[in-house]
Amino acid sequence: MHLPNGSYVTFGGGNDTTRDGRLGVRIVNPCTISDIPTDEKCKWVENPAQLSMKRRRWYSTAEATGEGRIVIIGGMSAGGYLNRMLPNVDPAYEGGQAEPTYEYFPPMDGDPQVSQFVVKTSGLNAFAHTYLMPSGKMLLQANLSTGKSHLLGRLDPAKAYPTALWDHVANKESPLPDMPKGIIRVYPASGATVMLPLTPANKWTPTILFCGGSTIRDQDWGDYSGPNIATWRVPASKDCQRLTPEPIDGSLPHYEQDDDMLEPRTLGQFVLLPTGQLLLLNGARNGTAGYQRDQTKIGPIPFGLSLAADPVTRPAIYDPNAPKGSRWSNEGFGSSDIPRLYHATAILLPDGSVMAAGSNPNPNVNLTAFFPTEYRADIFYPSYFSAKSRPNPQNLPKALSYGGPYFDILIPADSYSGSGNDAADATIVTIVRSGFTTHAMNMGQRFMQLNNSYTVHGNGSITLHVSQLPPNPNLFQPGPAFLYVCMKGIPSIGKLVIIGNGNIGPQPTSIASQPPSSVQGDGSGSAPGPGSRQTTIIAAMSAVAAGLIIILIVAFIYVRRRRRAQAVPIHGRTLPGLNTEDVDNLLYPSRRPAIDPLDFLIPTEPRLDSNRESNTASHRLSHYGDSFISTTGQTSSQLYSDGGTRSSYAGVVKQPFDSVPVGLGAVGFGDRGSEKQDGRNMPHADNFMDGLQLEQPPSYRMAVAGVTQPI
């Protein structure tokens, strides 16, 4: 979970023979990449003598308050599949295996108090869904399975799936409507859950989206030792529900049926994109989270120990603003070849791509299991990476406040094409907190659109007048976030900012100054599309005289020959055909124009030697329709809709830390045989990255430069 100063903190965990991690508090402080790995301030800090929780916790929930203090709720004391014993005669403590209390970080005086919600939801309450509301109360959602109902052999559906608003200061709960249809969303059913974007249009009113999970019956869920049925045979749910816990119109909270997902999914994970759309990825069509070593009760699992089966490897996009019936889409998306099940994660990167990693439905590292321990990482590139240009905002702030005077952002004319008025009308400013990702969840993930107006200038540049956050820290808790400018659905590179004063405690608030009214240009404030200016100049010159045309042709030939002759030494070698401009395009994707990937194929170098040390940093490229997946590893061949296969290498380049905060990508498109590219046979490209492997000086970080145009 985030802290107000930009640090991140984790709580609890497992225990082994050397130390007990269940009391653990671990903090990593912000630092620059140039400090890694020698600077102590960049390392995780874990000192049990100074930092420890008051209770042992495994699979607890954490949520920040509006002051930046963390509330840590429930959890298990010793781990297991479900947080209960059967018969469930001690739903609070389960004979010492459950922890029904909550506490704070930094710690507060007194002993942790018992949460009645945790007691009532005994069993299915690990990683309970928790979201801070504008009032300062928290939404809690989990299953309910009391000992009494189980002992009677039945469960009242009207009381079985509770939702509540919780005042953590007074420790009082207000019940909300039950989850419809008896669908379990909480771990290990592991439905995908997210707070939808907070926008001026919805008056920054939180609405929670729940999708997927399981309808397994209460008696079949089992206990700490595991389930009572073969979960991998049970289809996951594809149902989605919305809930607005604190409606601003005075109406009563109620669940609202939303569009079903395109396919059933457990262990799916939502990632908020800078544009306000949601990416859903990872998970399986059948089963639950977890693994099962003792298979006496459920019979042999046909694929190792995983309690989930039939991985969903095709992502989907959810548009919360689209009309009902049309909010989901996966058109044009291919599928990854990496199943992401139990222990998988996904998180937004500052450049707007999404990294997916992990998956290990095994008790320990197992690289040969049917669903093995997964060390490869995917990078998903949404369709906006195919844009010919991206916004390049100037004068971005380093911190934002709760209320106060508005600020200005300058958008240069080369950040867009077409009418400046149209571009300004289609521009929004957003802040996104990606959260802390674990077990198919992003705790603390939030999205807020700031109010803004604009002034379009005669030279095509645009000044955005942007309001600060609303003066309520409960809407977007203090701490780190990325600031984006999105024009016509194309986001800029995210700028890291700190929300609030950077300290734990009451945050200063003031009336939010409204930006001035928008001022449109007179029609002259338009930006040329990429290449249009050169086209206009050439057309004008060609009309002057035939002699001038000849001069231009001669000049063009001269420049082309110089370009071919020019080469850039990289890692002590010289690559023919790759000039300084090409390298600049690789290193600075925010300034990179749209290009034909074939321009970067270098067929003249020897193949990459599999024994070379540089191979350890190679990445693998696959394709999600109009997007890329760059995967750590050596090489791969992917099936494409055109029937061909492509394999590629990617390598490591040096990149200034300030140029792109984090920007993984891929380069090199090629084949090992009969591959196709828009109907064309592709030359070998797997040798390109052999020469692009660079040394990493201390002032640079490792990244993979990417060609951000679909192939």
Structural overview:
The chain has 711 residues and is mainly beta. The protein has four domains: 1-182, no CATH class; 184-386, Galactose oxidase/kelch, beta-propeller (Methylamine Dehydrogenase, Chain H), CATH 2.130.10; 387-527, Sandwich (Immunoglobulin-like); 565-592 and 595-703, no CATH class. The chain is built from seven helices and 48 strands. The strands form 17 sheets. Strands 24, 28, 31, 34, 35 and 36 form a six-stranded mixed β-sheet that branches. It has a four-stranded antiparallel β-sheet with strand order 3-4-5-6. It has a four-stranded antiparallel β-sheet with strand order 7-8-9-10, with no helix packed on it. α5 (532-544) packs across α6.
Number of helices: 7
Quaternary structure annotation = single chain
Largest sheet composition: 6 strands, mixed
Low-confidence stretches: 145-160, 530-545, 559-711
User: Which percent range fits the helix content?
Assistant: under 10%
Tell me the number of structural domains.
4
Arithmetic mean of pLDDT: 77
State the CATH architecture of the largest domain: 7 Propeller
Radius of gyration: 27 Å
Span of the ends, CA to CA? 37 Å
CATH fold group of the largest domain = Methylamine Dehydrogenase, Chain H
Number of strands: 48
Q: Outline, from the CA principal axes? A: globular
